[in-house]
C-alpha cells in the first residue's frame, strides 16, 4: 500500500481528508503512483500532470524521504520506504511571487 499526501486544493477536489492509500501494481515509480491516483480519483486527471505531455504541473513538486524528486525520471524506482508504505509520497503545491 502506497501512502500519498496531496495538497489541500487537490484533497478538496478529490473529496478526501488526509492521506490517501493506493495499491500500485508493478514497479513503484512516480508514473505508476500518479497513474494510480488518477485511476482512483479521476477528477484529478489534468490537475497533477498535463493531459497530453504527462509532465507534472509547474506549481506542483514531488518529494519522498526528504528528497525533491520533481526533476527525476518518471520511471525511476521510488525509495524502498515509499514502496513499503513506511514513508509517504508527497505532492506539494509550490509558491511563487515577489
Structure characterization notes:
This protein is an alpha+beta fold and 98 residues long. The chain has one domain: Ubiquitin-like (UB roll) (Roll). Helices cover 22% and strands 19% of the residues. It is built from three helices and five strands; from the N terminus they run βαβαββαβ. The chain has helices spanning 8-14, 30-40, 80-83, and strands spanning 2-5, 20-22, 60-64, 67-68, 89-93. It has a five-stranded mixed β-sheet with strand order 2-1-5-3-4, with helices on one face. A hairpin with a 2-residue loop joins β3 and β4. The longest helix is centred in the middle third of the chain and has 11 residues, at 30-40.
Task: Give a brief description.
This protein is an alpha+beta fold. The chain contains three helices and five strands, in the order E-H-E-H-E-E-H-E.
How are the strands ordered across the major sheet?
Answer: 2-1-5-3-4
Find the structural class using helix and strand composition. Answer: alpha+beta
Q: By CATH's scheme, which homologous superfamily applies?
A: Beta-grasp domain
Intertermini distance: 40 Å
How would a crystallographer describe the biggest sheet? 5 strands, mixed
Please state the second-level CATH architecture. Answer: Roll
What radius of gyration results from the CA coordinates? 13 Å
> What is the global morphology?
globular
The total of beta strands comes to: 5
Strand content: 15-25%
Low-pLDDT runs: none
Q: Secondary-structure element order, as H and E?
A: EHEHEEHE
Q: The CATH topology is what?
A: Ubiquitin-like (UB roll)
Question: If you average the pLDDT, what whole number results?
Answer: 94
Question: What is the domain total for the residues?
Answer: 1
Q: How much helix is in the residues?
A: 10-25%
Count of individual helical segments: 3
Amino acid at each position: 500500500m502506497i501512502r500519498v499526501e496531496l495538497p489541500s486544493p487537490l484533497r478538496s477536489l478529490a473529496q478526501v481528508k488526509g492521506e490517501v492509500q493506493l495499491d500500485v501494481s508493478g514497479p513503484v515509480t512516480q508514473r505508476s503512483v500518479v497513474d494510480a491516483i488518477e485511476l482512483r480519483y479521476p477528477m484529478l486527471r489534468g490537475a497533477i500532470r498535463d493531459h497530453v505531455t504527462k509532465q507534472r504541473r509547474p506549481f506542483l513538486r514531488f518529494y519522498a524521504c526528504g528528497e525533491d524528486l520533481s526533476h527525476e525520471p518518471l520511471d525511476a524506482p521510488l525509495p524502498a520506504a515509499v514502496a513499503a508504505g513506511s514513508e509517504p509520497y508527497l505532492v506539494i503545491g509550490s509558491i511563487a511571487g515577489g
